[in-house]
Specification:
alpha/beta, Aspartate Aminotransferase, domain 1, Aspartate Aminotransferase, domain 2, 3 domains, seven-stranded mixed beta sheet, five-stranded mixed beta sheet, 19 helices, binds pyridoxal-5'-phosphate, selenium, L-seryl-tRNA(Sec) selenium transferase activity, cytoplasm, SelA_trans_N_dom, L-seryl-tRNA(Sec) selenium transferase
Length: 458
């Protein structure tokens, strides 16, 4: 016979978990478990089948169900895909070294909008100004919720009900939902497209300039490339044109970087400083792409334009919270020492691993897996990682992977088991192999991977 809800809730083990989980949730779990058992019993088709009705099993099921119901929907996962700025898996990771400062700003009062020197009201936007000015040599700075918001705010402030000129080759869609033409429409600016998809000349921009033109815009097409017979106007030439007609030139860099990563074997991408030096009046970029900080949209450039943006009511709706300000300032501070930045900002660290370092990481993981004696073919192989986040689309970075082909299990079944396991391992499958790219796996996650593999092969 099945126990009653009252019998289960009176059990010592259940009473114990009531200190951790809300009573209503535990009750719901008990009712569900008993209900499930009841329907299993009524679905029995013959006398040989049995349902496990033991009291201990029911209590255990109730505890597990309560745990699952109370766990957060947003869970830690292990990224074994090798894609560093993985948009689906949370993009950038913050550096461990800033956790005390981050927790302090979250759990204690701060001078968020208070000027300590004067003892009066201050502005949340002042905290990032000095560091960003130092890094970019820009006159002024404004930080908003994300780069989409930054572009929206810039266009709304400078070109509402007026015209903004953009090259046809740069009308991109990024991240599945950000489209330059749609953002333009939302901002109230009128999009004036110039040139052809593969070719835009300076005179195309110049011919389109009218009394109504308030912005010349360049979009860094970070997630696709037009190859072959192409021509694009560089920000330098566009800036000369902007000065001639006294129209601000804005560049949406997408993934903002402060370090020229070509020094570390990646392709050249313009840095924020390059863009400013070449004459852009306003530059916008993301905080959580290759920069490696929290989600944010950073606007740098000429003071006269940024002052206008600060007064725009839209800024209030797009404003960043204190956790973002804290994480961003602490991340940007690391860039003042490039070596420290490369070492301590996870995104940069992962992008700049030497192949020997990856080989060593792969060997360490393989040695731990080998002890399990799994019924599978397991090897270290060469592979390719990606930057991700729509950055450097053609860049494939050499990496080392652990490739696993189970002897008695479908490889997609293995993938599913590990994805749904408590450690939530997300990896790729190809060529009938389950592939773990060590680039994006932390060494302190190795034991979890080994444990989950052992369970999956049982
Ligand atoms: C990614 C990207 C954006 C959007 O940035 P979010 O920070 O994701 O809002 C805008 N423009 C370009 C060129 C991008 O690459």
């Amino acid at each position: 016979m099945l126990p009653s809800v009252d019998e289960v809730i009176g059990d010592k083990r259940i009473i114990d978990i009531l200190s951790k989980f809300p009573r209503s949730l535990v009750l719901e779990s008990i009712r569900q478990v008993i209900g499930l058992k009841r329907s299993e019993i009524s679905n029995l088709s013959n006398d040989n089948e049995k349902v496990d009705m033991s009291f201990d099993t029911i209590v255990e099921d109730c505890i597990n169900k309560s745990k699952i119901s109370y766990s957060l929907s947003l869970k830690k996962v292990i990224n074994a895909t090798g894609t560093v700025v993985h948009t689906n898996l949370g993009r950038s990771l913050l550096s461990e070294s800033i956790k005390d400062e981050l927790w302090s700003s979250a759990s204690r009062y701060s001078n968020l909008e208070y000027n300590l020197e004067e003892g009066e009201r201050g502005s949340r936007y002042t905290h990032l100004t000095e560091t960003i000015k130092r890094l970019t040599k820009a006159e002024d700075v404004l930080v908003v919720n994300n780069n989409a918001a930054a572009v929206l705010l810039v266009l709304n402030t400078l070109a509402k009900e007026k015209e903004a000129i953009v090259s046809r080759g740069e009308l991109v869609e990024v991240g599945g939902s950000f489209r330059i033409p749609s953002i333009m429409e939302l901002s109230g600016a009128k999009l004036v497209e110039v040139g052809a998809t593969n070719k835009t000349h300076l005179k195309d921009y110049e011919n389109a300039i009218s009394e109504e033109t308030k912005v010349l815009m360049k979009v860094h097409t970070s997630n696709y490339r037009i190859l072959g017979f192409t021509e694009n106007i560089e920000i330098k030439e566009l800036s000369v044109l902007g000065k001639k007609y006294n129209i601000p030139v804005i560049e949406d860099l997408g993934s903002g970087i402060f370090v020229d990563l070509s020094k570390y074997g990646l392709s050249y991408e313009p840095t924020v400083l390059d863009s400013i030096n070449q004459g852009a009046d306003i530059v916008t970029f993301s905080g959580d792409k290759m920069l490696g900080g929290p989600q944010a949209g950073i606007i740098v450039g000429k003071k006269e334009y940024i002052q206008k943006m600060k007064k725009n009511q839209l800024t209030r709706a797009l404003r960043v919270d204190k956790l973002t300000i804290c994480a961003l300032e602490a991340t940007l501070r690391m860039y003042l020492d490039e070596e420290k930045a490369i070492k301590e900002i996870p995104t940069l660290r992962m992008l700049t691993y030497k192949i020997e370092e990856l080989e060593e990481k792969a060997n360490n993981l393989l040695n731990k897996i080998k002890i399990l004696n799994l019924s599978a073919n397991i090897n270290i192989e060469d592979g390719f990682s990606q930057v991700g986040g729509g950055s450097m689309p053609l860049e494939t970075i050499k990496t080392k992977v652990i490739a696993i082909t189970p002897n008695n299990m479908n490889v997609s079944k293995l993938e599913q088991k590990l994805r749904l396991s408590e450690s939530h391992i997300v990896a790729r499958v190809y060529d009938n192999k389950y592939v773990l790219d060590v680039r994006t796996i932390f060494e302190d996650e190795y034991d979890d991977i080994v444990n989950e593999l052992e369970k999956a092969f049982k």
